[in-house]
Amino acid sequence: MMSTLPLAVPSVPGKNGCMGSQSVAEDGAGAPPAVVGRQLGRVGRLPGGLGAWAALLVVWLVWGSTYIAIRVADESLPPLAMAGVRYLVAGALLYPIARRGGGPRLRAADRPGVKQWLAMALVGTLLLAFGNGAVSYAEKALPAGLTALLVATVPIWMVLADKIINGRAIPRVGWAALIIGVIGVGILARPPAHGSIVPVLIVLGGSLCWGTGSVLAGRLPAPARPLLGTAMEMLAGGAVLAVLAAATGELSHLDPGQVSGRSALALLYLIGPGSLLAMTCYVIALRRLPTAAVSTYAYVNPVIAVSLGALLLGERLTIATVLGGAVILASVALLLLHRARE
User: Fold this and answer.
1) What is the pTM of this model?
2) What is the residue-wise DSSP string for 73-113?
3) Which of 111, 171, 214, 289 has a beta carbon 3.0–4.6 Å from 293's, enabling a disulfide?
C-alpha cells in the first residue's frame, strides 16, 4: 500500500508499495490502482510469454522493495510530504502519456468529465492518501518488513467491505481466512514486540481504507484507459497528501538542506521504478497472465520486503514477526485461492 504501491487484481490487495489493492501504490507496497484490476481482469486469461512473466517478476521485486525505500526516505523527509511529492510527480509524468494512449476513436470517446474526476479523486484519496500515506507515516517508527506484513491484510478488509457495500456473502472458507488473519495480526501487534501499538493501528487503518477504496472503485465511473485512471488517482491522492502535510505542519518545517542523499534517492526510486515502471509491468502482466498468477504479488511482496529489510536495513527477524507473518500470508493465500476457484 501501499508501499507498495501495492495494486490489486479483482478481490486482491498492494502495495505498497505500492498497499495493493486495486490501485497504485504496495506497496505496498504500492501499491497502481484499483481501476486497472477492474478493467483488465477480464482479459487476465490471455496466453502469456517470457516478457509477461518478466513483468510479473518486476512487480514482485519492485513493489516489495518500495517498503524499504519508504523507510529510507522517511529518515530525513516528512512522511506525508514525501508521499505527496511521490504521487504528484508520478501522476504529472504519467497523465499526458496516458491521455495520448489508445487509438483516435478511443481518445475521442474517453474524455474524463467531472464524474470521472470525482470518482478517481475518491479512490485516490482512500488508496493513496489514506492507505499509502498511513504506511509512509507509520514507517517512521515501524520496520519495513513488519509494515509489509500488516499491509498484507488488505484482502481481509476487501472481503468485509465487499460484504457491507455490495452485500456479497462471505463463505465459510472466507470466514476461516478472516479469523486466521486476525490471529496473525494479533501475533504481530503484541506491544512488547515493538513498543507502541499506535503505528500498527495506523497501518491497519490505512489497509482498511485501501480495501474499501478498492471495492468502491468497482462501482464508480472510471476512464476506459486504465493508465489514465491511474494517473488521475495519483494526482488526486498526491494533492490530498500535500494538504495533509500542510495541515500537520510538515511543509513549514521542511528544510531541503537537511534532506540526505539517501532519502532523496529513495524518493526518486519510489517515483520511477516504484510507481511508473512497476505500474507498467503490472498492466502487462495482468493483460497476458492468469489473474491467479498475478495475484501472487499479494503474498510475495511482503516476503521480499521482510528479506530486504533484514539484508539492507539490518531489521531483526523476531519469532513473533516470522510466525505472525506466516499466519497472515496463509490466510491471504487461502482467501485468494478460494476466489480463484470461484
Assistant:
1) 0.83
2) HTTTS-HHHHHHHHHHHHHHHHHHHHHT-S-HHHHHH----
3) 289
Q: Which three cell numbers stand for residue 3?
A: 508501499
Q: Which helix (H) or strand (E) segment is 40 a member of?
A: helix 34-40
Cα three-residue angle 38-41-42, rounded to 5 degrees: 110
Closest CA to 3 of 13, 11, 12: 13
Structure confidence by residue, pLDDT tens digits, 168-200: 888 888 888 888 888 988 888 765 445 678 899
Which value, in Å, is the radius of gyration of the alpha carbons in the chain?
A: 18
263-288 pLDDT tens trace: 999 999 999 999 999 888 888 887 88
In angstroms, rounded to a whole number, what is the distance separating the alpha carbons of residues 312 and 332?
26
Residue 17 pairs in a beta bridge with 4
Angle subtended at Cα 4 by Cα 276 and Cα 232, rounded to the nearest 5 degrees = 50
Task: With CA atoms as reference, report the closest residue to 213 among 132, 293, 123, 135.
Answer: 123
Give Cα separations from 111 to 100, 101, 234 (angstroms).
11, 12, 18
- 262 φ/ψ sector (left φ>0, alpha ψ -120 to 50, else beta): alpha
Average pLDDT, whole number, for the chain?
Answer: 82
Residue 77, Cβ density class (10 Å: 0-12 exposed, 13-18 middle, ≥19 buried): buried
Task: Give the C-alpha separation, 125 to 238, whole Å.
Answer: 8
